[in-house]
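[Automated response] Your request has been received and processed.

Submitted sequence:
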Amino acid sequence: MAWGRVFKKGRYYYTDIKYQGQRKRKKVGKNLRLAERVLGQKLADLIMTENGIMENQKVTLKQFAPEYLLHKKNASRPKSYHRIKGIIDVHLVPIFGKLFLYDITPERLFTYQSNRLAKGVSNSTVNREVSVLKNLLNVAVEW
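Generated structure:
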């Protein structure tokens, strides 16, 4: 279980966290509210990690795509699987492949949609590509 507090030493506030028998202190700054926010966020992250809700893994889309495709191969019809595999290999990996999954933001997705539509691709095709990407991200979060 994680434990923490904020304390002041001189003019600066510090966080003091004890987790799994280890104690970590860190200088935050001169603002008490900022120190309390930092402490709250760190404790929330530790508790979520402890319960298996969040892991601090940095996975790119290119690394996660084969796992997702294996899942889809077992859960989809062959024709659907080949369509999804083509979308990922041809369109998504070249654009988003080097990005960490948590770096794929709505702004980047909007830019991708705009670029695809500007090239003359139909709305339904772009929507299908976006839905594959969203499903991939949802599966990553679930796992």
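Summary generated for your ticket: The chain has two domains: 3-50, 61-142. The longest strand covers residues 12-19.
If you did not submit this request, please reply to this message.
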